[in-house]
Amino acid sequence: MNRCGGTAYVIDDDRMDRKFAKRSLGKSQLFETVELFEGPAAAMQHIENVGRPPELIFLDINMPPVTGFEFLEQCSAQIESLDPVPVIVIVSTTVNPADLERAAKFPLIRKFLTKPLSEERVTEAAALLN
Q1: Could you read off the pLDDT of 62-74 as tens digits, one per residue?
Q2: Local structure of 60: helix, strand or coil
Q3: What is the pTM of this model?
Q4: What are phi and psi of 69, to 5 degrees?
Q5: What phi and psi values does residue 88 have, to the nearest 5 degrees?
């Protein structure tokens, strides 16, 4: 796969998961920039400050105090108004059928991947940008 360029965000409350995701994204060499965020509020603040949204967001589901799903419920309209509209990929340590069902209700969510985020999974997610 060719380099996508652009930016990918990893939004995950777990420091080791963020570190592993950054390493896998770096190995893939698909993105010019990788930004790591401990929670969705910091990511949205960054978008507002920078003015340019990421092409791809890896979003953890289980984060306190706001889950990935709660974040999307609160911010879907704001995210959909971005240009370009980021592709959102849910990442989770488990594949809970209830989570898969809930994810299907969000048009912004394009894929559901399990952690850890490997180089192969990064490539799989980046393919959604084409």
Answers
A1: 998 889 999 999 9
A2: strand
A3: 0.94
A4: -65, -45
A5: -110, 130
